[in-house]
Structures are given as C-alpha cells and as structure tokens.
Amino acid sequence: MQLGEYKNYIAGVFTAGEATETFDVLNPATEEVLATVSNATPGDVVRAVTAATDSQPAFADLPAHERAAFLRDAASRMREESEHLARIMTLEEGKPLAEARGEVLYAASFLDWFAEEGKRVYGDLIPSNSTDKRILVLKRPVGVTAAITPWNFPAAMITRKLAPALAVGCAMIIKPSELTPLSALEIARIFDEVGLPKGVLSVLASSDPVPIVKPLMDDPRVRKISFTGSTEVGKILMRQAADTVKRLSLELGGHAPLIVFEDADLETAVAQTLACKMRGMGETCVSANRIYVHRSIYDAFAERFTSLMQTMKTGDGLEPGVSVGPLVESAALEKVERHVQDALDKGAQLLLGGTRVGARGHFYSPTVLKGVDHSMLITKEETFGPVAAILPFDTEDEVLKAANDSPFGLASYLFTRDIGRIFRMAERLEYGIIGINDGVPSTAQAPFGGVKASGLGREGSKYGIEEYLDIKYVSLGGMNA
C-alpha cells in the first residue's frame, strides 16, 4: 500500500519548506515503501521557531478554557478518526491493529486530561514578615518548547508532551522519529483542522535527526526540550542544552525487572507478565526485561507463561487475530537475535521460539528463555523484542539487590499479596514507576518518568504540567500606604 507524499507542518502550513529531497517510510511487515515525506532542513527549523516565538505571547494570554477547547476538539477528532489513525500507525510502526487502536485512545486521553488540568494552574499568596508587603507566586508558560519523540508510541508520546504545553500556553515544535513520522503529521492535521492558531505548532520530519535537533538546541528562543529515547542521546542533549540553559524533560532507557513472589496469584502474575512483556512486541521502555520468579514456583510459572506465549499469532498487524507484529527495523531484529544467541551460548534453555518468522519483514517469534543468569547480555541491555528471560530467586533481599543492580530506573513490577512486602519493595526499588500486581500501569493522570540513567522530570498527571511552567515570585510592597 502506498500512502503518497506527506509534507511537513511548518508555522501552521503543510509545505515542503526548503526541502529539495524526500525520504521513504517503510512498512516493517513488508519492507515496502509506504510513503514519502519532505526532508526538513535547518532553515525550516528557524522558520518554525520564529513562528512559534511570534505566536507564543498571544496564545499564552488566551484564557485557559479557550486553550482547553483546542485540546478537547482534537481529542474528539482523534476518537472519530481512530480507525484511520490506527491503520496508519500499524502500517508505519508494525504493532497489531488492536494495539494501535488502543494507542489512539490513549493518546487522546492526554488531550482530555490536560485540557482540564490547564484550568487548574494556581499560584499562591504567602504570608509576609512585614505588614506592608505581600508575597505572590505566579505561574507562567516557560515559552517556546520542542519535543523529540520515538517510534514505538508515535501518537501517545506526542500528545503526552504536546497536551500540557498547549494547555498552559506554550508553542511547540515536534521532531518525530524518522521511522514513524506519519502519525505525527496526522496529529498536526487534526490540530490544524480544529483551528489551533498558526505558528503554535510545527512538525518537522527528517531522515537524519541531527541537522534538525542541533538548531533547536542552539536557539535560545527554545526554552524547553522534552525527549523520549535512549540514554546515550539524552546525555548528548543535556550537554547541548547547557549553552542556552534549556529546561529538559528526559524519558530515557529502561531495563525493567518484574518480580513474582511465592505468594502471588499465579494466574494473575502470568497474564500480567505477558501483557507487560509483549505490549508492542516488547518494544517499549517499560517492558519487562528481567523476570524474576521465586524458585518454589519457578517451573510452574515458566510452564504456564510459555503456554500463553505459544498462543500468540505472529504476522502483519493488519491481519485478523495477529497479536505479535514485526519489529520496527532490521537493526532491531538483529539485536534480538544477538541477545538470544548470547543467552543460549551461556547456558540458557530455550522453551519457545528463538527464530525469525517469514521470508520478508522484521518478524521474530515469541520467545521464552529459562535458566537465565546475570552473565548474559539480556540481563544488562534492553532487548526491545518479544523475548522473555526468566530467572529464579530465593529471598527478598537477593531479588531486591538484583533488581536494583542496573544504571536504569524507569519501571519495575512485583506480584505479591503480602502488604508489608508491598511497602518494603515500593520504598526500596530504585524505579520511578512501580506496578504492583499490575503489568500495565501507564495512564494519563499518573506521573510517568524514571530515576538514575532513565531520565529527569515527569510526564502525565498534575506533575507533568509543572514541567512547562515557570514560577515567578512577586514581592508587593507599600501595602500600608
């Protein structure tokens, strides 16, 4: 299927801008060209930033309920067009259509949430030490912002950043992944159709992110960057942000441990682990990478989990009944193969899968490895694929130490019915997100983000909107005159 040519959305207009070239977007299920997209230039970035800077003051001065209307209208339009948007997402990213439909609704939920939360940006009146003074705290939008978004959630990772920015009055320039720019441009179309003021939003797609991101980082008019991606790139952005002292929100890599204690409800633990591990073919930053199971239930868990994995159908995400689509690109497939082979070479036992599927496309079979230990790559690096690595443990202290033995601290999970253990583990696990008897905890009203090398700041919830606000202290004197 060919979707034709897409143009970038620059300063409120769909245009090729300065681009003289296009780049191809490939369908990972067929490896065929799905669409072509105008290749944005540094000059396009300058134009977008200038338009954002010019439009920012008037947009920020709109009453919050007027800005909220744009978000609500866009959310409503996304739900109306959910089938169209989901189909495009499946075609460019690979996830099964049912999951893509779910992501569209998830993406819309951020627009709904922040449409309301933007109305509740309150300041403070602080008691003064002097009768002739009053202390006021005001909150104002940080200014022009930019978002650099990943391919694995090509709609939700945009709205999770864009919604709070617009809600408080910040203009935003979005640089989507070169692998999945179509969803981003479709979202731009929706905001254009609901009447968002020109210049407040731009979407710039490029086959090479560096020439687009560098001028965003160098431009002092861009006051904040929100990035979701690898820790390595996040560190580069931190260094680049230093020269203009930009604010940063960084949602970086993860290596999530999932712990099943001996008192867990086994059926719930197996089902929730499967949901956590296999969402998006395991290509998520919160996917379970190390599955620790108490030795007393280790074999029973592995057997039941493998049986469930075996029922999952691999294929093109548009085909009925498919629950495992292709990986996003050949490099992702090669990394999964490398991790599995390394584990097998070091003594892991293959219970299921372990092979490519089909002659074309980036398909890998649902895979279960037992007898995994910490000498293996799969326990140190994000696999980002449909591979479950199961490790045994004996004591709470032992598994806590193993779970925390990682530079990353994004998401973790545990399954137990012991309330004391729940509190002990929640307080001691070095992770920003902890799912307890819950393998899919993400939601618009909760703060999403990590600690350690997994990033800075939070997205979603009342905490996420604070990332786009500056606090102003006003000391008001002469009150007794």
TrEMBL record:
Segments forming domain Aldehyde dehydrogenase: 16-474
Cited SUPFAM superfamilies: ALDH-like
GO molecular function: succinate-semialdehyde dehydrogenase (NAD+) activity
Keywords: Oxidoreductase
InterPro entries per record: Ald_DH/histidinol_DH (IPR016161), Ald_DH_C (IPR016163), Ald_DH_N (IPR016162), Aldehyde_DH_dom (IPR015590), Aldehyde_DH_Superfamily (IPR050740)
Gene3D superfamilies registered for this protein in UniProt: Aldehyde Dehydrogenase, Chain A, domain 1, Aldehyde Dehydrogenase, Chain A, domain 2
Domain of life: Bacteria
Gene Ontology annotations of biological process type: gamma-aminobutyric acid catabolic process
Annotated family: Belongs to the aldehyde dehydrogenase family.
Name of this chain's protein: NAD-dependent succinate-semialdehyde dehydrogenase
Gene: gabD
